[in-house]
Design brief:
Length: 224
């Protein structure tokens, strides 16, 4: 019985130690797995969907589906895109794959681009795609699952995150499905596209304690 308890204690201690190591090695992330929201339009009417990244009551980004499918911010926040070039003031949003590093420094030829106010009721943002009878144009192609890289402010400091988007495949339809989003709670620290929080230290401690309690209550499984 003593040997059984000794081994159970060692196993429990190992679980608690592993929990501590994992907790110290991970960053602090918030993941919002909201109900999938579909935002689509065949050009009219224009529909919108607001994103409050940190759930503080302020709209950080808005999606618009109308003559195109785009994301914009009226409060100075930015997303990963590339300029359209020429006399076109807009920019093209870039779909990011799982594991892409989103932070102050980006891969070559990608930029943090801010929305521009075109009129009091119209903002020039980052275009995901625009569809017509000939097909869909832009880097976000039909039937694509990827991530938007975003930078937004919390108490005057930059935070980095991602927004999950699935685009539709219907000809002439602008829009897609907003699936979820996440951000790093540490100002200025990067996040990988698709990254979500690992189990917290408290969850691991509770799991380890429950295992140890169950092992002792179960009784001896081997003899001295």
């Amino acid at each position: 019985m003593k040997r059984m308890k000794h081994h159970a204690c060692l196993i429990g201690a190992a679980i608690l130690w592993l929990g501590c190591v994992r907790a110290m090695g991970q960053g602090s992330f918030v993941h919002v797995d909201a109900v999938d929201h579909v935002i689509i339009s065949r050009g009219s009417p224009t529909v919108y969907y607001d994103i409050d990244m940190d759930q503080n009551g302020t709209v950080d980004f808005a999606f618009e589906a109308g003559s195109s499918f785009r994301i914009f911010s009226t409060v100075g926040n930015r997303s990963v895109a590339i300029p359209k070039g020429g006399n076109d003031l807009g920019s093209f949003s870039i779909p990011l794959g799982t594991g892409f590093e989103i932070g102050p420094s980006l891969a070559p030829n990608l930029y943090w681009i801010e929305s521009q106010e075109y009129s009091p009721t119209d903002w020039i943002g980052q275009t995901l795609h625009f569809a017509d009878t000939s097909g869909t144009h832009g880097y976000w192609q039909p039937n694509m699952k990827a991530y938007l890289g975003v930078e937004f402010q919390i108490d005057g400091s930059e935070h980095y995150g991602w927004i999950g988007v699935e685009t539709w495949w219907l000809t002439g339809v602008n829009g897609g499905t907003i699936t979820d989003w996440a951000y790093n709670t540490v100002p200025g620290e990067m996040i990988f596209a698709g990254q979500v929080p690992e189990p917290s230290i408290w969850a691991l401690l509770i799991a380890g304690g429950a295992f140890l309690w169950w092992k002792i209550r179960r009784g001896p499984s081997w003899t001295d």
